[in-house]
Amino acid sequence: MTRRKPVEIETVERPEIVLNVQNGRLSDTDLDRIREAGYDSIARQSETYDELANSIPIVREKMQLVGAPFVSLEWRFNRGDNGEFVSATVMTQDNRLSILNDGSSGIYRQYRELTEKRGSQRGPIMHRDGLSISEYWFNPDTRETAKNRPDDGGDWRKATTFYLT
Question: What is the mean predicted confidence (pLDDT) over 59-80?
Fold first, then answer.
């Protein structure tokens, strides 16, 4: 019987960063070693949250979707600190998935209307021109809105509402 020669595997040394973890906690010694190794060393050895969670990023700036085509795949209504809002899973032309959150009289109201018309909270629904935007002035004391800023000394603030197209 012929014996195979062991294959040599090249290993890359990684410093032992986390040692002596007891009860699920890092010891002071572990933390000192982590600090000594530095952010760059730790980051190279880290898994990303995206890899672990398989999460879909949230649209932070709705302006990104103004005039940019996207498809609504599904949506759901949630309760938040400021009332109900909608969370929609959308896909942009570059095949990126994102979560679009909104609780305003624009997008939220439109998804409510879509739900009533379709009898479901699923697409796909094409938004060829992405979102549109309406800018106006709002007075939180009187709840009034105006196209141009009134000069009446009231507490008028610039406001924006986004709409599905």
Answer: 95
